[in-house]
Amino acid sequence: MNDNPVVLSQTYFHLHISENTPVGTELIFINATDKDIGINGKVKSISKTFIFLFYYNRFIIQSVMDIHWIIFVLEIQLECMNLMSYEIISFFFVFRLTLVSPLDYESEQSYRLTIQVRDLGENSLARFVTIDISILDENDNSPQAFVTFVNPLLNNSIISILENTPIGQILAHISISDQDSGLNGEMSYRIEQGHEIIGIKILDRRSFLLVINHLIDREDKSIKIENLSLIIFDHGKPEKSIELNYQIHIIDLNDSPPKFNQSIKCNLDLNHLQNRSLDQPLFQIQAIDLDLEENGLISYSILPPYENSFIIDQQGRIFNFENLNESSYHLQIMAIDHGKPIRLNSTYDCYISISTNDHLENFNQPIKIIIFKYNYLLLLILILFLMIIGLIFCFYKFLFNQRRYFKPNKTYHLYVSIPRK
Questions:
Q1: Distance between CA 205 and CA 149 in Å, rounded?
Q2: What is the distance in angstroms between the CA of the first residue and the CA of the last residue of the chain?
Q3: Domain parsing of the chain, residue ranges
Q4: For the segment 193-205, what is each residue's pLDDT rounded down to a tens digit?
Q5: N or C: which end of the chain has fewer CB within 10 A?
Q6: What are 298-308's pLDDT values in tens digits?
Q7: pTM of this structure
Q8: Alpha-carbon distances, residue 376 vs 124, 306, 380, 387, 417 (angstroms)
C-alpha cells in the first residue's frame, strides 16, 4: 500500500549566488526517498516529467542519478555492512538545481522556487522544497552620465566658450547613475583635462554642474586649453569608469588693440633729401594684433596735420607725398583693426628732421633747394636781388678803373721866373 510519503533530506534552502555565476553551475542537490515499493515508491516533481522543469527560464531541476547506478553504489556499501535490503536501495532519488541563463542583479535581486515532490502511487502525499536564492551584486555596470549643455555643441563634441566669460557661468548640467548597489554604485568624478578654466559645482550625490572658474583670455599663451576630459568612476573592486571627452573652442573677442613693434627705428635725420625718389619709402613700421580674423586685421593711417605730406601703405611703408620744406616733422601713425562692434587702435610717434650744411663748399645746395621748393614769385624776387647786386658790383668796378687813369694837375709858382730865350 502507498502508505509512506516521500522523505526529503531538507525542505528549505537559502542560497547566495553572485550575479556573475556562469551558466551551467550546479547550485544545489535535493535527496528524496520513499519506503514503498513499485510505483508507490517512485518519486516525481510537480511536472508531468521531472527531468526538465524550468523556473523563470533561469533554473532547471532534474534527476542526476538513475536507479541502476544507485543500486550498484549501495550494494557495494551494504556488502561491507552485511546488509542486503533492496527495499531501501531501489527508491533513492537525487535532484539537481542548475543555472541555465545569466543572472542580473539589476533586473532581479532574488528568486523563490517551490518544488513539489510526490511518488507515483495513488493518493500520494506531496512534499515541498522551498529554495530562496539571493543574487549578490557584482561591479558589472559602469557609471552612466546624462549631460545637458547650456549652448548646443558643435558636431556633438565641441564646446564653444566666449572669451572673457564671467567666472561662475554654467556650461552644462550632468546627472550620473550606476545600477550597482553598495560601494559598486557609489561614484566620484574629476576633471582630468581642462581644470585650468572649468570647475565642478556639486548639486547632490548624483548631479553637478560644469562652470567657468577662471577668466579666459584667448591671447594668453600661458594657458592653453584644447580639450575637456571628465572621468566618472565607481568605488567597486575592480573599479569601473567612463570618460567624457570634448574639444574646447574659445570664441575670440576684439579685446586686444594693435601693438607696434617697439624695435622699429623711425626717428630719421635726412640730409640728402634732394637725392631721394618719391617712390622710395622713408621707413617701414609694423603692428601686430593677437585677435583672429577681422578682429586682427590692421589698417594704417597718418594723423593730421601731415596726412597730406606723407602716405602709408598697408605694409606700413612711409612715403613723402610731396617735397619737404620744413626742418622737422612729428608723425603720428595710427594702426586700427577691423573688429566689431568696436574697432581698437593705437598710435606710434615718429620724428623726421631735415639737416642743412652751412659750409662754403655746400653753398649752392641751399640755393638749389630754395629754387625748387619755393614758388615762382620768390624765384623772381631772388633773380631781381641778384641783378641789383650785379649792377652795384659793376658800378663799383667802373669807378675803381677810372681813378687809375686820372693825372694830377701841375703846380706853378708865381715867383718862378720863366726862362727867357
A1: 20
A2: 228
A3: 7-136, 144-251, 259-354, 366-395
A4: 988 899 999 999 9
A5: C
A6: 999 999 888 88
A7: 0.60
A8: 146, 24, 6, 16, 74
